[in-house]
Write a structure and sequence with these properties.
mainly alpha, Four Helix Bundle (Hemerythrin (Met), subunit A), 2 domains, 11 helices, 0% strand, globular, disordered N terminus
């Protein structure tokens, strides 16, 4: 349910249409080469006081109008940049993240495990490779990226268990966009593993691609926990969460 604060309904509809128009403009600007930082401030003003659910609904409308998912996907990084700032926080009456067995808790625990792997194992090895390239370092980094590819299981659960329930409520754009990014991250991790197996691969290329891949994984964790999961908690019934848990 979208919160409507004050004013009359025609004013609300006009505001929504205005926001829709500006979103299209921002996506076009991103397409034409503007950076996240260049459009962030305008996006932040546009969504002031607007819930994450309404932003998702606006994006959904753009896709229904025929805008390619890949274009709407350009907003994903802008979302993350803005929600890290002072935009209205999404509060929940109780915190399912603290309830063992709740899918939200499970997803978050998986994310903490991914972060530990990145921070304690992968990043130190990337730094080691920067200082001195060596077969041993490459082998160990390959092993850690093989573990990171287990993220595929986390993404599959999200895509095959959570997304269908959101789509049932007409929330189709965010799952499509996020699924597209998940696929890109899978490919990024596989590409790093392929490079690490190639003895002729340039170490600088490995370092750059490995660093970029873990950055994207971290960005997806942020997007899940600050955009996707709060929206799902706001939408799904307890019975539906039970079905996902089962």
């Amino acid at each position: 349910m979208i919160a409507y604060k004050g004013g009359n309904i025609s004013e609300y509809i006009n505001n929504r249409e205005y926001r829709q128009k500006v979103l299209k403009e921002l996506i076009t600007e991103l397409h034409n080469g503007k950076s996240v930082d260049e459009v962030k401030e305008r996006f932040e003003k546009l969504i002031e006081g607007v819930s994450a659910s309404e932003i998702s609904m606006m994006e959904n409308e753009l896709i229904k109008e025929g805008m390619p998912v890949s274009e709407v996907q350009r907003l994903c990084d802008v979302h993350a940049a803005v929600f890290k700032g002072s935009i209205e926080e999404i509060h929940m009456p109780e915190d399912p993240a603290q309830i063992p067995g709740h899918p939200f808790h499970t997803f978050k625990m998986e994310n903490r495990a991914i972060e530990r792997l990145i921070n304690k194992s992968i990043k130190p090895l990337i730094e080691e490779l920067k200082e001195k390239d060596g077969t041993d370092t490459r082998i160990r980094l390959y092993d850690e990226f093989s573990k990171l590819y287990d993220i595929d299981k986390h993404y599959l659960r999200k895509e095959n268990l959570l997304f269908p329930f959101l789509e049932k409520y007409g929330i189709t754009a965010p799952p499509k966009v996020m699924w597209g990014v998940d696929d890109e991250i899978r490919e990024d991790v596989k590409e790093v593993m392929t490079l690490l197996k190639d003895s002729k691969a340039n170490s600088e290329e490995i370092i750059n691609k490995a660093s970029a891949a873990v950055d994207r994984v971290n960005e997806m964790i942020f997007k899940e926990e600050n955009i996707l999961f709060p929206m799902a908690l706001d939408t799904l019934s307890e019975d539906e969460w039970m079905k996902i848990a089962n």
